[in-house]
Amino acid sequence: MEMNTEMLDTPAVETITAEDSVDPKPVLMLAEFETADLLLVAAAQVRDQGFRLWDCHTPYPVHGLDGAMAIRPTLLPWIVLGGGALGFCGGMLMQGWMNAVDYPFLVSGKPFWSIPASIPVGFEMTILFAAIGSFFGMLLLNGLPRLYRPHFRSDRFRRATSDRFFISIDGRDRRFDVESNARLLGELGATAVEVIEE
Amino acid sequence: MKELLDKLGPILRPEFTGNAESPEIDNTAYSPDNRTPLLTGSDDNTTISDKVCQIVEQKPTIGWWMFFLLSFSVLGLLGVFVPFLIFWGVGTWGVNNPVGWGYAIVNFVFWIGIGHAGTLISAILFLFRQKWRTSINRAAEAMTIFAVICAGLFPGIHVGRAWFAYWMFPIPNQMELWPNFRSPLLWDVFAVGTYFTVSLMFWYMGMMPDLATLRDRAKHPLRKVVYGILAMGWTGSHRHWHVYERAYLLLAALATPLVLSVHSVVSFDFAVSQVAGWHSTIFPPYFVAGAIFSGFAMVMTLLVPARQFFGLKDVITLKHLENMNKIIMLTGMIVGYSYAQEFFIAWYSGVNVEKFAFINRAFGQYAWAYWIMVSCNVLSPQIFWFKKMRTSLVVMFIVSILVNIGMWFERFVIVVTSLANDYTPSAWDYYTPKLTDVAIMLGSFGLFFTLFALFCRFMPFVAMTELRGVLAAATHSTSTAPDDTSGKPAAGS
Lengths: 198, 493
Fold this sequence. Notes:
The complex is a heterodimer. Chain A is an alpha+beta fold. Helix content of chain A is about 40%, strand content about 15%. Chain A has two domains: about 5-75 and about 150-195, no CATH class; about 75-140, no CATH class. Chain A has five helices and five strands. In chain A, α3 runs antiparallel to α4 (about 115-140). Chain B starts with a helix and ends in a 14-residue tail after the last helix. By secondary structure, chain B is mainly α. In chain B, α4 runs antiparallel to α5 (about 135-160), α10 packs across α11 (about 350-365) and α11 packs across α12. Chain B contains 16 helices and no strands. Chain B has a single domain (about 1-25, about 40-470), classed as Formate dehydrogenase/DMSO reductase domain (Formate dehydrogenase/DMSO reductase fold). Chains A and B meet through α1, β3, α2, α3 and α4 of A and α2, α6, α8 and α16 of B.
């Protein structure tokens, strides 16, 4: 990699511009780190600089980043709880309404509706809806599926799902500035800094 | 034999780069102050991706094609005999008047049971923080999904008029009649349906980051598109990981009671009835233990060849296999205890029909099936008391096959012996399967192995993401203080 002689520890900034773009503007800055240790230290610094629209990208969940990025606890458990409650109540009501209200029919003299006989289905419905809440709640809170992101323009970023660690800063962040941000990330140990323009 | 394998090896197996061809290392020694490593190779984040992804990225070998085509042709039996069955009706089965439940129910319970090991590995071992699960959980979860698909086939076709199978679901039909929720058979529909849905979501969610790895490594445009869609735009964002990890934990916590409930509900199909030999409170735990037992045996049957074939000897190590053998031995003994307990309760109940049912099982017209079951399930895993045996690939593979056979016969013994000789001796009969029964059973194995072959070929066989986490944790314990929050990859360690 070519080094800027004036900033010894700052890597050169590579710019990737979308080919179909008429008026290219920087939308994203990516900084690559070799190890999770470097990333953790860097993330804490970026947090302290007051950035808001930024993120870390790691090939596995790096523990300690929650704090280093000041991520607040997720809402997800409440969605799961809601799903479970919905599933249980829905399951119990469904059984009672179908077998005792809408079309009561007598089988082996059993009561039309009773709690013990309704437990298995009620339980399964609880699990089913809670799990659906967990899976789809995760997708919803993460804004997935989202097949295109500016990150994917970078070839280097492909290693974020394998063996490299990245910090990304969104172009809409108030503190976004190509030069000063690149210097900051370089000082924090980034091996490469890229700017995506669209 | 060995020479033949050496000669055939390069033709059948894929060629691997890097340190995929590492030798077998015995990491089964136990020492509390010096934990043996979970991965015996010198892998770091980079080589783990290479190792797992090249299984998918390489051209399929002759060995894979042979396995796939063999499985696929056995699957063809389903294609022939299921339409035949639907056209002619269940009279083409060997079921007769007292024995109304034959191979269909036996196979259903067998396949559902197989699935349980996958969920145990993926959910219960996750909650117990058993890190060794990470090498095997993906393949075991895939096995769960495929086993439940095989199981789901049987209720669909054994209802007789398969085109009315949707009456099992609470959806409005032309008679405005709802399903009967007071029947365990309907509980089963909900239990198995929930089990399949939750297992699928759990499996898929665990795979998303790995699919993103495949997407990012893909060269072919079609691969890029397909894995791109499957990965849903995953970028490894930590804000996403944060929610993802919580969702994964919650799914594991939900799947744990679920897996215990599924085989319990399956056992209710029997236990809630009035048939001697079925009407027993021991059934739920006994069925769950048996399910885990048979499932682990199937995991072993699949993984022992797969780790050799795909060069994963240092990822799925002897330690992993030994741990599974220990679980097989434990659950095998629980099953053996249940067999004994059934006899005790039958005697202790003082009910003549119960007593007869069990003496008849062991010494009646199906005694041969009963003793196959006992020798395969209770006796064969006892060999694992010897460490040499539970670390021998040949022995564990043979035992896993025996356990599969034994557990299939367990379901056969439970279903058939109790029905063939029930309360009225004048109604007794002997059940013999016909060609259709056997063909559909074999076909379900074909379906299972076909799906597994496709999974090996197109999906990440090992949870790379979780292995990277294990690698990071391994460097923690040796090179950094425990309160250090860093997650350094294990390069060069």
